[in-house]
Amino acid sequence: MLAYHAAFLLLVAGSTLFFAGLAALNVRHADETVRERTDWLAETVGVEDPDRLLDYHRLTTAASQLESVVLLGFVLLVLYTGLFGDAVSVVYDATGNDLLAGVAVFVGATVVVQALGVPFDAFDTFAVEDAFGFNEQSPKLFARDKLVSTAFSTVLVAVLAAAVLFTVQQFPQWWWVAATGVVAVFLLATQVIVPRVFLPLFYDFEPVENSDLRDAVDDVFERAGFTCDDVYVMNASSRSGHSNAFFTGFGRTKRVVLFDTLVEQLDEAELQSVLAHELAHWKKRHIWQGMASNVVQVAVLLFVASVLLDTTWLYAMFGAPETPAAGLLLASLWVQPISQFTQPLTNKLWLANEREADAFAVDVMGDGDPLAGALANLTSENLGNPFPHPLYEAFHYQHPPVPERIRYLTEG
Predict the structure, then answer these.
(1) Catalytic machinery residues
(2) pLDDT digits (tens, 9 = 90+) for 107-137
(3) Whole-prediction pTM value?
(4) Residue ranges of domains in the chain, CATH in brackets
(5) Each residue of 321-373: pLDDT tens digit?
(6) Under a CB-based contact definition with an 8 Å cutoff, are residues 272 and 223 in contact?
(7) Are 72 and 13 contacting, i.e. CB atoms less than 8 angstroms apart?
(8) Annotated binding site for Zn(2+), which residues?
(9) CB count, 10 Å around CB of 102?
(10) Which residues are documented as binding site?
C-alpha cells in the first residue's frame, strides 16, 4: 500500500508543483522579454506602460497558483484524515438508494470545491481586477452571481453524475463506453444550454438589428458565405472590462455573441476581422473537430478510470467504501494529471485551427492588417502577456502567441 501512496503523491502533488514551477518560469520569461521588446510593445501593440502589464501578469499568475496549491492541500487533508471515506459512508447509509447517494456525493463535492474557490475569486475580483480597472462588480452582485452559478453547476453535475452512474450500474464491464456517449451528448447540449440558459442569468443580450453594426456584421456574413439570424451584443461591461466574442451552437441554434466592450474598443474593420475569425471555426468545422477530440480524450480517461474502479487498493488507500461514486472521484485524482500532461497534443489541433481561422479572416477581409490591429488592441486593453515561455505555451496555449500572429498577418 505504501507504494500506491508514493505513486499517488508523486502524480498528484508532483503535477501541481510542476505546473506551479512552469508558471513561475513563464513569469520570469515574460519579465525578461517584455524588457527587451519595450519598443515593439509600444509601436505595435500600444502598450506604453509595460510595468503595468507585467504586474497584472505576476498577480494573476500568483493568485491562480496559490489557489491550486491550497486546493491540493485541502484534498490531501480530506483524504488522509479519513473524512472523505466517512462522508461517503454517511451519505450512502442515510440515502438508501445507491444512485441517489452517488449523485449526492458528486453534488456535495462540487459545492465544497465551489465554496473553496470563493475567497480566491473575491481576491481576484476586488483586489487584482479592481486595481487594474477591470472590475465592474459590487460585492452584492458578486455574491449573487456565485450563488446562481453554484446552483446551476449543481444541477448540471447532478444530471451528468446520474447518467454516468446509471451506466456503471447497467453496464458493469463496458460502462466507460456508454459513459463516453453520455458525455458526448452533454457536450453537445452545453453548446445550446450555456449561451441560451446559463449566460442570460448574468448578462443581457441585445439583438443586433437595423444599425451600422448590423450592416457591418451582415457584410462579413456575405463575404464568408455564412448565414445566422441570431447576432447579439452582450453587456459584459456589467461585470468586467475584458473583451471577447464567441460563436456557439449548431444548425438552427447558431448564435454569434459580441461583448459590448469589444464593440467599443475596436473600429469597424477590426471588429469584422474578429468576427470573420470566429466564423472560420464553423466554416472549417473546427467546432466539430474540437468536440471529437474532447470525446476521444474523455474516452481514454474513462477507460483508465474503469480499470482503477476494478481494483481494491483505490478504495483501501483512504478507507472509502467500494461505491461507484467514491471510485470515480478517487480515479479522477489519478487521471487528471494524465489529462494535464497530454494537453500539448490537444493544443496542437487547436493551434492549427487558429492559424487556419486567421488565414480565413485575411481572405474574407482581403487584408491582414485589421485582424492584426484587433489583436494588438485586445492585448493592450486586456493586459495579456504576448510572450509566453515555449514550454508554458505548449501546455496552456490554444492560440499562437500574439507576436507570431501579427507577424503572419502583416508579413504574409
Answers:
(1) 278, 358
(2) 999 999 999 999 999 999 999 999 999 999 9
(3) 0.89
(4) 1-203+284-411 (no CATH), 205-267 (3.30.2010.10)
(5) 999 999 999 999 999 998 999 999 889 989 999 999 999 999 999 999 999 99
(6) no
(7) yes
(8) 277, 281, 354
(9) 28
(10) 277, 281, 354
